[in-house]
Structures are given as C-alpha cells and as structure tokens.
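Progress narrative, work stream C.
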Amino acid sequence: MLYETLQRPELLPQVMTEIAMASTNDPNGSAVNIKLLCTQPLLQSMYAETLRLYTSLFALRSAAHRSVDVDKFTIPQADLIAVDSRVCAMNSHLWSTGSLGNNGQEHHPLDCFWPERFIIRPCEPTSGPLRFDSKKARSSDLDATAPGPGRSPYFSLDGLSGGWVPFGGGNRQCPGRNFAKQEIIVGFALIVSMLEIELLARDKIKIRKPNLRYYGLGTLPPKGSVPFKFRKRD
C-alpha cells in the first residue's frame, strides 16, 4: 500500500482525508478509531488491491469424499489440489479493468495497481471489482443489502468467492484475516500520518512490478530496490 501510494502523489490527500475521519484526537487513548478506519472505502480498496496484486500462494485442498470432475479432468479422491491465488487474481473473465479508453485499451489492466478497483459507484456500471458481464452472471453472489442507487461509493468483495483468495477460501481460510486487515490498514495509516516519505528518482525509475521469484511463497516484494527518504511530519 505504501509503495503504491508514493507512486501516486494525487492519492495521498484522499488517503489522509479518510484517516482524518477516523482520528480521535484523544491524548489519553488511541490515536484512531480502528473500527471506523478499517471501514473507509478507499483504504479498504487499497488493502484488497494490494493483496490481490502482491500475494501469491497455493491453497492445498483434497476431494475428501469422492472423485471430482472438473471440465475434462477428474481429480481422484484424496489427491491434493493446489489452488493458485495469483491465477485467480489475474482472471480477466472475472475482474473489472474499468472502462475502455478511446483507443480500446484497458484503463486499469490486472497487472497494475488500481486503488479504486474494489469501490462501487452505484451510477457507474463499470465500477467495482467485477466485470460488467460477470455481475450479471454472478448476481446470486451479490449482497442484496449493499447500498443502492443514489448512495455513496462503497467497498465491496461481493461476487469474488474463488477470485480474491489471499487468505485461502472456504472453511479453512486464514482465521486471522480480520486481524491482519486491521494491522495492515492501521500500520499504513500511522506511517503516512507520522512521516513524510518521498521516493527518490521517481521520474527515472519505472514502477516496480511484483517480484515473481517469490511466486507461491506468500507476499511478493517489488522487483528491485526502492530508494526513498523520510522525515517526521511537523
């Protein structure tokens, strides 16, 4: 989250606005309302997009009760199944890339970070994480209680079961996923609130892609060094 924010100077003021909304200004207590902070739409979307792009793991499962037919293949009972989270995260049939440009090119390809990929704007049919045609196909997965037309933009993972799986899936997904979300968002908020951080030679160094040498091992660091300087905020 931090690296991608520093690549986009226009993003930081939006982030700071959401952090300010959750600040308590209580000298004797917590600096932020953690519950409120972790429900801000942009921060949640950036968190989810970071995990979509920068995690790669294999969730191991098995067909415990019987063999399972998948398309033209049969998975024998008790054989291990390795579900690749990055293949799911790069599924172009599922994920939205926003509206197309005048040249027909995708505005937000799946191998690039899009801070608002998980934000739904009720009046914009191409907003949100799902492709427009996937929204119709997977309408049974969508949350009927989500804000409707005319409401404010909101964060959503609806319809992404089997697509966004940085913590695994099903009954055996990571039990600490909610705590991890709080750690990531709160840690990020404290760092950008307390420190002024500047990437060095940003104009000369291309945006670092995830380092696929660490494929399948959990998190993917940026490929190459990322020089920066920081100082305490006044």
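Work stream C, second folded protein:
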Amino acid sequence: MADFADFASAPSPSPIYNPLSDSSNAPATASFPEHDTLPTGAAKIPYTKWYRVWERTSPRDFYAEAIIIPFIFMLALVHIWGRRKNKRKASVWIAAHAPTLEREFASVGFDKRKQLADYGGDFSGLLKEKSAQEYVTYATGRQNAAFVDLKIKLFKRYNPITLVVETALSFLFETIRPPKEVMEATIYAFDGKEKDLVPVRTKAELDTKDSRFKGLPNSGFDACVWAVVHKEQMKGLRDERYDVSLTATKDHKNLPQWASVMSESAEVTETLLTKDLVEALEKAGDAFEYLIVTDQPVDKPVKLNEATPRKRIIVSLRLPSSIHASAYQPTMPIFEYFLKLPDTLVATAHFRGEVTRKIRATREEETKKLKKADEGEKAEERRLEAEKKKKEIRDTRLKGLSAEEQRKFLEREREKGQKKQEKKMSRKA
C-alpha cells in the first residue's frame, strides 16, 4: 500500500487549453497552452489565423527557395539573351550576303513572291529558324544550278551548360568535334535534268514543257569527287563523309600551306584549281573549312537505290566572332566563287576518256558490292519465304491426321533430322 500512497500525493492534472472549444473570441496574437507538454527538443508551434504566415515561419525556412528561384531566373535570362544573340548574328550574315545571292539567283528566301527590295533593309525575313542554334534559307532561279540550300549553325548560347560540356568533351575525346559556328551551303546542279527538276505549275506550262527546255545549252559535266580542304578539317571530313573517302589527299604548290587537295585524279585538280579560287582561299584564311564537288552520297550507301549519283557543290565557312557585316569581307570572294562554280564546271569539267573510265570504275566497283549484298538479302528472303510456306503446308497436313498418325509423322520427321545431322557430321569428319 505504500506504493499507492506515492501516487496519491501527486497533483491532479490540469486541463489543456483547446482554442476550438473556447466559446470566447480567439486571441488575435499567438498563444500557447500553459501546461502543454511537447516531446523533448520539439519547438512549440503557435496557433494563429491561417493567413498569418509570418507568425508561423521565419526566413531560414526559405533558404532553398532563395537559392533556386534566382538560379531559374538567371537561366531564363541567359536563354532569352542567347536566342536573341543567335538571331541577331544570323540576321547580320544574311544582310551581308543577300545582295550577292540576289545577283546570282532570281528568287531568294522561301517567299517567292517577295523581292529583296520588299524587305525594306531588314533581311531577317529571308531566314527560317529551324532551331535556336540553326537558321536556314534558300535560293533558286539560276542557269546550271537548280537551287542552293544555306544553313547557319551557331553556338548553343541559350544553353551554356550544354555548351561547356560539349567543349570539355571535345578536349577529352578526339571523336567529338568542338562546337563551332559555320555557314554551310549546298548547290544542287541541274546536270542536264532541267526538264525533271523545274516545277510545272500550270497546264500551259505542262503543254509547252518540251519546247521550253529544248533550246537550252547542255548543263552537264563529268562526275567526280574533288575538294579543297583546310588541313585541320581533313581527318574529320574523311571520317564523316563517304564521298571524300574515295579520294586521295595531296598538297599542291599553288595552295596555301594550311590547305590541301582531295581528288580522284590529278587532271581533275589541274582543271578545277583555278587562279581565282586560290586567291579567294588566301583571302578567306582560317575562316575557310572546305569546298567539295561531288556526285556521291555523304553516308556510305547500304542499298542500291542510295548510290544514285547526284551532283552537288558544298562549301563550309567559319563565322567570325564579330556581329558586324564588315567582318564577312574576307570570306565574300570564296562565297561568290562558290555561287559561280556551276558555270565553271559546265564549261571545263569534261575530262579525258581515261580519267572518266577510272572514275567510273570506282563507282562500278562500289555498285557491284551493293548488288551482291542486295542479291544476298533477296536470296535470304526467298529462303525464309519458302520455309514459311513449307511449314504452313506441314501444319495443315498435320491437323488433318489422327493422334496416332500424328505421332508416326513426328517420329519420321525426327528420324530424318537425325540422319541429316549424321551426314553433316560424317562430311565434317
């Protein structure tokens, strides 16, 4: 009984204050129950009105938000700045080159109804934004050239983290090329196919199609793969492009030390490496990457239809860091030469029979390999189809048999399979 006496001497518990059950008005300020007990180390949370957030929180509760929100805001600003900078740089490029394109082509830009004067000096309308780092434009309406595609590739200024990572990886791995700002243009030659390539819009044009193209001079020239390449780009170009891999690389006495020729024949080089081209290359300097004349695909063909020749001229030029139009003066001569190169090819790219046969033999050898691979694939398809039909006939026949007949049929099949296996083993022995 002495033990119970200890409990009897303890004070009676006091009721805990509950604001929800209090009939009087709740206090405006924060209040705590006097006799409320909390776990050791726990902070008391005051009872306040739902909108009095400042009475229940402190600045240290928002440390994470204080870091994340300014970071997101900074990324948004950098993204907007990067996109605007890229757009401005592309606009400066087209403003510097639009007059040259208009002199060489009847239509510049994707809106064929507009002339250059209709843009009022703001030529950014000639460009189409393919992505935040890539702008494209187009020109057509020229003798010996069906059309030209122009592509401007810029830094990912709108995403600096990706830009830094790609740059760092290019230093660590040789297979990853560093980010760069370039303009790449491709002219698709008519090559005597004006009748097939020029679009017909009206019935009258369709009726007079034969007569319209009958009197045109021949725009064809001999097929070849020939290139002038900056030596820094040579290895990467050979790895990336199948057409260039068909050539042999040689230095030339007329070229600057930093440039080299990739050609299928010495005669092709002597014909296409003109004095005007050499002078334009010297003026361009390190801004020049490569100039390619080709009739072969960029990627190695795996099917016969992919090896169909299509004559093209490609140029790649580095963009200067400056955003002023005057910065493009060094590369303007090589750009103008590139636009006029189809005329040079039509006039001079007609080689001796021996050279043409050698070039044709290279293409025929590649075509034979593709034909052989294609025939092998077709033979395999025929074999699989025959096996499929044979299996369907077997299954149909097996369904029509009784259980005993099916058992005997399967036993005969198994015996035949064993005999075939024994024959194979004996032949190997």
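The beta strands are 107-108, 128-131, 134-142, 145-153, 182-189, 226-230, 248-250, 259-263, 288-294, 312-318. No further action is required on this item.
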